[in-house]
């Protein structure tokens, strides 16, 4: 009998030991944020650097990793980073936007503890305050699948982050002054690829090998088209979702969006253009990088290949062709225990319409006529410490058609609901919308006004799940969301001047029965500010 008890004890020790060893890994980052002189378009300007780099360093991680990021703010103004596409499940305190997180004061530091829980894919981080995004401070985030989870394509020979975006020669402070004065921004001066101007970046490939390009549009306002001279691109992933492996000659990447493509170096062994150009603009901005075949001594020559310019239908049809690979393994949304989102009844429909106009003689932008104004304390902290100061329901859940007015827009939605949101765009520009904390299914998009009959055309089988979607001019886009992530989450335009001047809101995802176990408590040592500056990191 004694040997049996001993064996059981040994087994328990082994099991306990394995549970400790099996804790998800930690990755540590120590970043110093500084100003520095940069020359992306050939003239000196003030940029924001991370550890002396522009753009900042990549974050490389694996599903479920814990990321511990210590940020030292060496600027002369408050600073904050947000993690575009990282869901921060049950932990909106670390989302890194002003509605949830206190800024880091000058000369201070703050540590963010993130977990990339049940996620894979290509994303990016960016500075969220004071129009800092126009000065840099952004970088790529890649989340690899865990080693035993099969990926629906062979390992590439290399994996490149490509950050594209429109750019101004003016410092971010000058651009902010324009907006604060109630004026619109001028047309951008150019486009950057990984922080460089024309032919400023080279990507080296070997003949016959296949490479992964993770492309993110980190710019301020323009949709961009990406293409590689003479090469086809196979789309494999969009913002954490493995896609049907459709081949494209060029790809529209709207503001805030991220895509992964595979290219094979199967062309003549010489240098080829990588081209990025603006969409739906007059004039068309264009820039280039270089795809260099190793051993080649033949540089790029002649004009870069052209791409689509103002064609809306071309872009709309391409967007509809992007679909989920239902046979791929890996994390994916799982509403109410089912992958079949199209078989779940929605419990609420929210219609959101953007608009532009003047308030007190100054330019403002709005959602359902409400132009967002921030408070002196993050909404999430006011809510957590039960201080109040804002009203849930301060924005209607459908357009009113009235004039623009200012308020702190908070939309209340119930935890664990399955809802439909319609983005309605009555303006003449392409819009781009992002929701923090979630991925959603893009079930439909079309021109004209949305009606209930529009649901007849929804894709209820293999719609792509992502966190940023476009809405074409005079058109609508419909999404489905499973509200399984409690917290206070920012829903915003990715056109950064419009976001800065009011085109955003917060979704408060709770119910009266939501308990503490549904949400992590505020992190110990979290920075507090405003009306909660003297509180403890646990409510009294």
From TrEMBL:
Q: Name one Pfam family in it.
A: Cu-oxidase_2
Plastocyanin-like domain location, by residue?
Answer: 32-146, 159-296, 396-513
Q: Which SUPFAM superfamilies match?
A: Cupredoxins
Signal peptide: which range, if any? 1-22
Query: What keywords are annotated for this sequence in UniProt?
Result: Glycoprotein, Signal
The UniProt record lists the keyword Nuclease: no
Q: Which Gene3D superfamilies does the protein's record reference?
A: Cupredoxins - blue copper proteins
**What family is it from?**
Belongs to the multicopper oxidase family.
What's the protein called, per UniProt?
A: L-ascorbate oxidase homolog
